[in-house]
């Protein structure tokens, strides 16, 4: 419930409970999964009562080299370093980008909205610009669309097209409607293709636009609504 109220991540909330720092109606809580009614139960951490926070939705232009996690045991920079000094409450990533990937990362303290966006049956389009280490041909693009079986998972793109090419490499625009781990990198590796850069430029109708690398901004109401409508429509369909 602490995470649903937007006060901390599930991991942090469980840690607080394990340390005996959380009370519900004046009694120390011991079970992170205990049922709680937010409309009447009083939840406190270190004696300070918490309540539902203002819902915040934002996009971050993640640079390469940052990991999408609240903390890293290896001491690597996390995306939260880019939010330091912002005065924002705790926010959770909506999906992930790996360390080497860049671009649009959504964050929010609305766990219900985030769950809708990331649900396996949502099939929300995610658009990437990908620089590869060779010049593609029509056969390769068709093969990426047809997909492969990799360790029991079906990997394929929803659509792919060439954006531009140089002498030895090219940029592709790839659209996915599912979120398997390192899907694009694994799919291209199956064709012995290395990814030089991978940038997510859009989630659904929400686009990264001209947002500077390392910068963030809040989503406007139309963007929030568009993502929710798109995910609700996909789940009903």
From TrEMBL:
Protein species of origin: Dokdonella soli
Similarity comment: family membership: Belongs to the pseudouridine synthase RsuA family.
Catalytic activity, EC: 5.4.99.-
Catalytic activity: uridine(35) in tRNA(Tyr) = pseudouridine(35) in tRNA(Tyr); uridine(2604) in 23S rRNA = pseudouridine(2604) in 23S rRNA
Residue intervals of the RNA-binding S4 domain: 3-39
Residue ranges of every copy of the Pseudouridine synthase RsuA/RluA-like domain listed in the record: 57-190
Keywords in alphabetical order: Isomerase, RNA-binding, rRNA processing
NCBIfam families linked to this entry: pseudouridine synthase
Name listed for the protein in its UniProt record: Pseudouridine synthase
One Pfam family matching this protein: S4
